[in-house]
Protein 1
Amino acid sequence: MTPSQPYLIRAMYDWIVDNEMTPHILVEASDQVQVPREFVEDDKIVLNIGPMAVQALELGQDAISFEARFAGKTISIRIPVKYVSAIYARENGQGMMFPEGDDSPPEEGPAKSERPHLQVVK
């Protein structure tokens, strides 16, 4: 299966914006992340990705990209999805955190008898 993180980020983004809040992402600022380094603290950066703060936002399967202004200068941002640690609403902190690294499936899954059974709860 494909990684779930890009789908969860898009869903949380929509939920936050639909509730008239401001979506922020916490990003691990590795070498593969294209962000303004002068705003990185402790190898992390928090970015406002709300509709009023960015232009050309793309919440893609592999990366998040957009343009934003930093200190009056427009900068192109590109973040591989696996470096997004969290997405949350600035106003109340509600959102979702993600484990470090990608969420690709393990090479060998559990035996059929060991797999969890899902139940629909009403």
Note: Residues 5-18 form the longest helix (14 residues).
Protein 2
Amino acid sequence: MELKEQLEFLVKNTVEKLLSDIFSGLNNSSFSQIIEKTQEETNKLGLNTVELACSIIEKSFNEQRNKHEVVIKNKGKSRSILTTLGELRLTRTLYFDKNRSKSFFAVDELLKLEKYSRLDKGFKSKLVNMATVTSFGKASEFFEKKVSRQTVHNIVKQIDVNCLPKKTNKILKNLDHLYIEADEDHIHLNNGRGAEVKLIYVHEGIKKNSTRTELINPKYFVSISDDVDKFWSDVAYYIQSNYITTKTTVHLSGDGAAWIKYGTNLFTNCQYHLDKFHIHKSIAGMCFGNKNLRFKIIQALNNKDFVKLALLYKEQYALHNKRSERKAIAESMLYLQNNRLSIDLSNNVSCAAEGHVSHVLSARMSSRPMGWSVPGAERIAKLRAFYFNGGDFNAIFTKNNTKEENKIENYKKWMRTDDGSSSYFKPAKVVGLDGVTNGLSTLLRSAVTTKLQY
């Protein structure tokens, strides 16, 4: 039976079984149950198709190998691989190449399967994606507990978050205004101490979408390190790589922390704005529900009348005798005085850093009781930023495995046409086929180039 006929047989049987199951239980089935059943049968069909393709590749290799140089060492060696379709079971033959004194599995080498790994790269990327969004435990449960929580943790731990794939614009944008907002999340470490995860995001402004507002082209950066210079250098490099800033006004907003103000030193035309949320929070904390006093303080700030502001705080301080209340009043006054040059409640520059910290960091790292190690917190924080930057989790393992794959002998070579429009397979040194003059079969070549023909 030819490959095309085998595939048609698989598809026909799957469709017939699926329709039979649907119509036989039509009275008791809901739409969601039909969808679930269809997904289940489709996954089974996918697994059967992949297993069939691998068996054809195995057979083709065996028929065309140089039988004097490459001998069969062991037949029927099984391997189980977890994929997003389900558990894939392969039966392979172990060959031995006399010239290289090397044992190998043809399918494993030709399809670049990781040695000794029970998890497909695509499956790993799904697990990391889920662990980034939820937790290690929920990520393992998402795939019917086929892997443990510890396995998910180990996979995430192997990722070098300092080498995550990055996107760059080929054309530099020239904008009149560019916005940078910053804040931090406070997390608990597993040694009983606390730590700060710093968040900076760059965007081109806001737009209204129905009843919501959205940032235009946001880019997120995170760090748990105290090296503020390195952190801001990454932000500055991104801006220089994507924007022409010679005539751009950079608006930097934050809560007044020294590490945030540090960013004003990196841009020639930078205006710093104290976050309005923290201004109102500071005022509310010392008014103790006195709305009239709150109104007078805001009015004084709008008029830049810091003499009147000091008088209002002095009167409020005199009215309270509790140490905690006086401390709140004094801290609020000191906060406003230290940031008086960056307070402007009338401008149109808004800052939503508090909300973004909650959404990007706190939802995963501090909203529930948990203790982090410093490397673990850094890793998850950067994966969260990667996720919200629209990163491709499949590309993580493609990039991280490049060094390992380069250690494997080059079994396949690719060539590209002069115009770069299409690629084709150039016969190269493939273990066991060196002496074959007629080349690989069409099926084997197409399988290697991921373009299965039949």
Note: Residues 31-64 form the longest helix (34 residues).
Protein 3
Amino acid sequence: MQLSFEQLKEITVGAVYMENIDGEMSFYKYFPNMIPMWAEQNPSFEERAKTTTGVRFDFHTNSKHIKLEIERPAKFEIYIDGIFRYTMKEIDSLSVDINTPLEEPIEDARVTVYFPSHKIGRVKSLELDDGAYVRPHTFDKKILFVGDSITQGWESGFDSLSFANKVSRYFNAESVIQGVGGACFSPEFLEPLPIDFDWVVVGYGTNDFDRRKEFDEFNYYMCEYMSKLSRLYGDKKVFVISPIWRRLSKPESRVRFGEYRRAIADEAQKHGFIHVDGSLLVPPVNDLYTDGLHPNGVGFSLFAENLIEIMKEFV
């Protein structure tokens, strides 16, 4: 039984816009009108804004099998009842049995299919057994994540193990993850969305440090962003993460980086947001990073665990 586009829309999480063109289904974390704006700021941002970061199918079924066919090989990851079971890399079709790790049949399984975070994942079909039911998963919370490559999950190893996805799973949250590698505080990309989020998690600043060398320029855009964030989500729980540790060899660079971090913290608190000290999320240990900037898989696990401990206080 092949699910229709309408059925797939019902079980899709993390996409603000979906389209079906000649049987090829596309899912987007930004509305189409935002993509040219990203391209105008930096040509490389266009592809990153189009990627299916955080998009997933999330549903319950009594089907014993599923078959996923995608438009071209991309890294899809499949969880069964919350357990990471399958990954797709160099293939464009995958048929799997739905069972437990002990091969015991499941009468009612939760299936979560994570789309690629750094590629554009397009789906041709999702098939279940004939006569099987499909029911969208019910969530307890709605979270919006906005930020740069760390929010997008660069270097996490597996996309479903990014901090944003791990936090979403822990809180059983429907989430939209608008992470774009290389992005800075840019208020024009903070768009109203037709979702009543409970929490908003913001993670910018490390690219501002690289690209906006003059503190006054950085501070202007950062403050404008915080003001718009307050207008859109001032009645929500807003967590602003100051940049995590990064390898800086020169003492003067470390001092300046600290100034950027303190400015973000001060402005967040000025608007009544919850400041999360990024330096406490991932220890300053080179082995927890791939390049002195992006956490590796273990680093992202620590990031998520420590952030969850902070966010649990506000449930």
Note: The mean pLDDT is 94.
